[in-house]
Design brief:
Largest sheet: 8 strands, mixed
Strand order of the largest sheet: 4-3-2-6-5-1-12-13
Radius of gyration: 24 Å
Structural class: alpha+beta
Distance between the termini: 42 Å
Length: 433
């Protein structure tokens, strides 16, 4: 692979939700901002040194999984039963057969994002799936081990993690006292003051407690990277919803809901609509009145209409016609996962960009911005249950130039990136903290 002149870009997020200055004091904001800025700067440096988007994005998310500040890996939320069930996913715009993979119901893998990465990379040697996919001598369905599957969970995928020699940990590794306090308070608030736990953690004196007021990130963490070869990658990881039912699967490992990446060639062309036959009413309308009515009802007119349209080209076409353009997008979502699932949020944003020939920034705004599709999906429950709340980060590349995009419809979204002028940025609200 030859390195091109494409400028690497990167953006990371640390979750979105009902964040305000009242529940995020300056010292707390400083902790989150410091970590996100460090991850952004260090990972962008790797990209600039030639790292692939896949390596960079999964590296950034691994660092966040290792940090107890965020709802992923060490520091993840608990289920209603007081257990840990982690999720992670990765997807690339090109270069791998599976393109996207997710892992669910993870308890003992130290870094779920690395497990999702292994599924993607080893998919190049997996069998095709089904009854007899892959090497007949390999009962796992191929030398990769995951067959053609894009999403696996529980003991099956954790067994693959051991086979692939990933770092395994006891479930208690992921516990933090702040999250346990949050778990207990949530149960009490919902009327379950004395649950029957299968485990009752013993905390060291160094473990910090939660006061019930300071904001604790509820969404996922994620990273979108563009490398110098023109490939986009999105990596996302989460502990899910606080006190979720055991076995619940969210948007983070679900392709098209909490993450998406794709590329396409398009051209901007003019499509000419043929004149419609004269409507019978035209024969009885005076000329002046006919023109007025035709302005309101174009079906009565007989003129040509020029319509700009993005037309996908054949992937097998070698020589692209004049005016063609290469585009690719990648996005990571954070917020109320069930709302992202119901709206297929990230794939919807990509589809708007592709088929309506709109910028990714405009498309993300249509889905995750104020009064966007996510908010509308909550109906009259908006602002009452947390439904519909969330945000999306992403990168769009058009003819070799990458652009950072993001939007959200809730109190805030932690995000860090380096802007077009090379300045490191970190924000949580629409305005500077």
């Amino acid at each position: 692979m030859t390195k091109s002149s494409i400028k690497p870009r990167l953006i990371v997020h640390g979750g979105a939700g009902a964040i305000s200055r009242a529940n995020l004091p300056p010292e707390a904001y400083a902790r989150y901002a410091s970590k996100l800025q460090s991850v952004n700067a260090g990972t962008l440096h790797l990209l600039q040194d030639g790292a692939t988007a896949l390596d960079a994005a999964t590296h950034a998310v691994r660092l966040l999984e290792d940090c107890p500040l965020f709802n992923c890996g060490k520091g993840a939320v608990f289920t209603r039963d007081g257990t840990i069930e982690l999720e992670a996913s990765v997807m690339v715009s090109k270069g791998y057969r599976k393109r996207g993979c997710g892992v669910v119901l993870i308890k003992h893998v130290k870094n779920p994002i690395l497990l999702a990465r292994e599924m993607l990379v080893r998919g190049e040697t997996d069998g095709a799936g089904g009854h007899n996919g892959g090497d007949d001598s390999d009962p796992s369905g191929g030398s990769g081990g995951a067959q053609g599957h894009c999403v696996l969970g529980g003991p099956t995928v954790e067994g693959l993690a051991r086979q692939w020699e990933l770092d395994m940990v006891p479930e208690s590794y992921h516990w933090t006292k702040k999250r346990w306090d949050e778990h207990k308070r949530g149960l009490e608030k919902s009327g379950v003051p004395n649950p029957t736990w299968t485990q009752n953690p013993k905390w060291s004196p160094e473990e910090e407690s939660w006061d019930g007021h300071e904001y604790l990130p509820q969404g996922t963490v994620g990273c979108v990277a563009l490398d110098s070869y023109g490939t986009l990658c999105v990596a996302t990881s989460t502990g899910g919803l606080t006190n979720k039912l055991s076995g619940r699967i969210g948007d983070t490992p679900t392709i098209g809901a909490g993450f998406w990446a794709e590329e396409w060639w398009s051209q901007r062309e003019m499509v000419y609509r043929q004149p419609r036959p004269q409507a019978p009413i035209n024969a009885v309308l005076p000329d002046g009145l006919r023109d007025i009515v035709a302005d309101c009802l174009p079906v009565l007119g007989g003129t040509y209409h020029e319509i700009p349209q993005g037309s996908p080209l054949s992937e097998k076409q070698d020589a692209l016609p004049f005016g063609s353009s290469y585009r690719a997008v990648a996005m990571s979502g954070t917020g109320n996962g069930d709302s992202f699932l119901r709206t297929a949020a990230t794939r919807t944003a990509a589809a708007i960009a592709r088929w309506s020939n709109r910028s990714l920034a405009s498309s993300v705004q249509e889905v995750a911005g104020a009064r966007g599709e996510l908010q509308r999906s909550a109906g009259d429950r908006w602002g009452k249950t947390g439904e519909g709340e969330g945000g999306i980060i992403g990168i769009e590349i058009i003819n070799g130039v990458g652009s950072i995009v993001f939007d959200f419809n809730c109190g805030g979204m932690f995000r860090a990136w380096t802007d077009d002028h090379g300045k490191e940025r970190c924000m949580v609200f629409k305005e500077e903290y």
